[in-house]
Design goal:
Layout lengths: L2 H9 L1 H16 L5 E7 L7 H19 L4 E7 L38 H15 L5 E4 H7 L3 H9 L1 H9 L30 E3 L4 E3 L1 E3 L9 E7 L4 E6 L4 E5 L6 E3 L1 H12 L6 E2 L8 H11 L10 E2 L2 E4 L14 H7 L2 H9 L7 E4 L3 H18 L4 H11 E2 L2 E2 L9 H11 L3 H11 L14 H12 L14 H5 L3 H12 L7 H15 L11 H19 L7 H8 L3 H5 L4
Parallel strand pairs: 1-2, 2-3, 11-12, 13-14
Antiparallel strand pairs: 4-5, 6-10, 7-8, 8-9, 15-16
Helix pairs in contact: 1-13, 2-3, 7-9, 8-9, 11-13, 14-15, 14-16, 14-21, 18-19, 19-20, 19-21
Amino acid sequence: MPAADAKAAEQDWVSRLADQVVAESQRRAPGQPVVCASGLSPSGPIHLGNLREVMVPHLVADEIRRRGIPCRHLLSWDDYDRFRKVPAGIDPSWAQHIGKPLTSVPAPPGSGYASWAEHFQAPMLGALAELGIEVDGISQTERYTSGAYREQILFAMRERVQINAVLARYRTLAGELDEDEPASNGAAGSGTAGNGTAGGDTASGDYFPYKPYCSVCDRDLTTVTSYDSDTTALTYTCACGHRESVLLSEHHHGKLVWKVDWPMRWAYEGVIFEPSGVDHQSPGSSFVVGGEIVRTVFGGVRPIGPMYAFVGISGMAKMSSSRGGVPTPADALAIMEAPLLRWLYARRKPAQSFTIAFGQEIHRLYDEWDALARKVADGSAQPGALAAYDRATGTAAGLLPRTPRPVPYRTLASVVDITTGQQEQTLRILSDLDPAHSLASLDEARPRLTCAQTWVQTQLPADQRTVVRGEPDSALLASLTDDQRAALRLLVAGLDEHWSLAGLTSWVYAVPKIRAGLPPDVKAATPALKDTQRQFFVLLYRLLIGTDTGPRLPTLLLAVGAVRVPALLGAP
């Protein structure tokens, strides 16, 4: 490996994990495709915490594919999990479906999808496609109801005493369910939802790792009362009053409890790599217990599974109440380009938490992203940063779509705010930013412009919107000092010469310098000069938009226009 490539690998967590996964796959299953896995439960909005469950193995799988090694990224949809509770904002009558498989629960009111699971799965599938994430989707409803896991279920029931012995070593004195509760961040592994309690009385040793769904009420409020491993005859009772005997070798309306189901899948699919959230890494968690069950019961090996940390959200001003205020990948992609969202996950090691900005912080985030792009272009990016950028902007299948003319996000947001999205005005202002390279069409600024428009519409509070004065503030103009009038006249006199973003940026700072008898290009600024500049800027804001602060002045001046600016500043 060349020295430069070796240095990049040292700083790139994805490459390091890919090295481990490839080596482990060659040891366990030489000649077979490498198998990475994720799992999501469509029990509600699949949010940005859940996305880390998919993004971490995606990045590793993609690196393996870049090396020319066959690799599968399995995405298990835990749509055969039980419906646990009715979320806020949903008709309380949906409580009648608690305990049913998610694919048997009707979609929320007004949805066009056939089931609860499909309703919450669909937007995530759209987001994954936009992010360039290729997965092999697996419906656990299909797997269980088709009988694909028949032999694994029968084997688990035969080995239930051994399974119960493993679980017993991890139970607390107060007792513990055989499944994990949903993760608080929603960022857990595929065990984000369990399957109810195990059938039978675990305290007496009459333990059964299989949980039937009732054939009458379709809920998992069932208790297995007997099982014969030789004949596979199983009897269960349900809280609805139904009692039934079935042959488990033919019964496909139930599932293994979570702490048995997950390790069973590891062995069944030959999973080499699957990360999980912090709640699955603690003693007694499903990842820890599953590691022992897959080894001692199913004869498999626990996947390489690094822990990934919390994903936070900052500055979110508005979300649909039906979503419970939980931002999804689709919400993020509405205000930021796909490469930027990928970069947030690629640049941080899985164990590092990070925050996704929905408020004003998104401007700083885009500034960082654009600065990195410039460093990549001129060859000055550090190896680790370059690797993260490459993983953000493309996959083994090719580059993701990008904005041809990436105008700074904060500039686009200011322009959209001031023009209220009027396309002709927007094109005029964006073309004036750099007259030597004006835009022929707004399409050159998309999709970033579209993202900025959505951000202004959904995240910018009404009291922070910019409204340009319709008429000059005659009272304020009449109260100006001679020095203030002279400064405004000087500014207006130089507008034509400096009518570009770069030109106006230097000019608004130069006017107070010239008035103070200093060269316009002087770099050092005394406290007195800084104070004079601040007062001058406040005056401009008051005359243009009636507030003491606002968008950056060069952008504001371009947006107001070469005709209106002099009029609002009192020029004859």
